Amino acid sequence: MSTQQSRSAAKVMLAPAVVLLMAWMLVPLSMTLYFSFKKYLPLRGGDLGWVGFDNYTRFVSSSSFWPAIGTTLLIVGGVLFITVTLGILFSLLLNQPFWGQGIVRIMFIAPFFVMPTVSGLVWKNMFMDPVNGFFAHLSRAFGSEPIQWLSQESILSLTIILSWQWLPFATLILLTAIQSLDSEQIEAAEMDGARLLGRFWFIIIPHLARAITIVILIQTIFLLAIFAEIFVTTAGAFGTKTLTYLIFQRVLESQNVGLGSAGGVYAIILANIIAIFLMRIVGKNLSD
């Protein structure tokens, strides 16, 4: 009886937080859906009435839509590949005992707490500037012409910036998973004559499968909405216009809230399709 009363009391106490959370999510979503069916131009006539699915048709038939989808997936895929690959390597290194291990771990995680805008500006001005950037000085030191990173290698530049931001997160999750690995398994495999590569491929990687899928899931959800880094570095030029940035242009630059809202709905659909696909992978790994 007391257990039932405790559960009821817990539900009552949690109810206000649940209601606020649902309102926090549903109100913006409802407004986005509402405006996506209207022609709303704040500075050019305001509310011009209902247009049905015209905004959706115009947005998806735009010449920038599919390139933006491709750019988004290309950047997300590149960042995931780099962060997962290097995350496994760095987590193995940080798991080894050495002097100052705690300080090194804290310093390694620090980039994750840098604001995206600050991160983009630092990389743009201090590293990738073709005149005074670090990479420019390094290129001249080796007798070659500096690369115009943000114009010639724009996708690679954004991938590097985002990977620098998200690598600490991936490393932290994977390091936690490695620390839960039973050392007796490694020792037994070593005694049986298993080589280093074999121990890594058949013991460590399967053990990290769950952590890797969780890293991919969380990073993908956030990376699909990247905006600040693009805004302060390339401003969507040189083929770096993602779906999020395209929505920004439609809403603020074109002052077409209805068209931008339709793009927002497409972004939600894309994020949910990818999230459901990844959740199935995560669920499969967690059930194994």
Topology record:
Elements: H1 2-36, E1 38-41, E2 46-50, H2 54-61, H3 65-94, H4 101-109, H5 116-127, H6 134-141, H7 149-152, H8 154-179, H9 183-191, H10 196-223, H11 228-233, H12 243-253, H13 257-287
Antiparallel strand pairs: 1-2
Helix pairs in contact: 1-13, 2-13, 3-8, 3-10, 3-12, 8-10, 10-13, 12-13
Note down, in words, how this protein is organized.
The protein is 75% helix and 3% strand. It has a domain at 65-240: MetI-like (MetI-like fold, Orthogonal Bundle). Helix 1 runs antiparallel to helix 13 (257-287), helix 2 packs across helix 13 and helix 3 (65-94) packs across helix 10. A two-stranded antiparallel ribbon has the order 1-2. The model has no long low-confidence stretch (mean pLDDT 83). A hairpin with a 4-residue loop joins strand 1 and strand 2 (46-50). It is mainly alpha-helical and 288 residues long. The protein has helices spanning 2-36, 54-61, 65-94, 101-109, 116-127, 134-141, 149-152, 154-179, 183-191, 196-223, 228-233, 243-253, 257-287; strands at residues 38-41, 46-50. The protein has 13 helices and 2 strands; from the N terminus they run αββαααααααααααα.
Task: Name some characteristics of this structure.
288 residues; two-stranded antiparallel sheet; mainly alpha; MetI-like fold
Distance between the termini: 36 Å
Which structural class do you get from the secondary structure elements?
Answer: mainly alpha
Number of helices: 13
Q: What topology, given as strand order, has the largest sheet?
A: 1-2
- Give the CATH class of the domain at 65-240: Mainly Alpha
Identify low-pLDDT runs.
none
Kindly report the CATH topology of the domain at 65-240: MetI-like fold
Report the β-strand fraction as a percent range. Answer: under 5%
pLDDT averaged residue by residue: 83
Series of secondary-structure elements, N-terminal to C-terminal = HEEHHHHHHHHHHHH
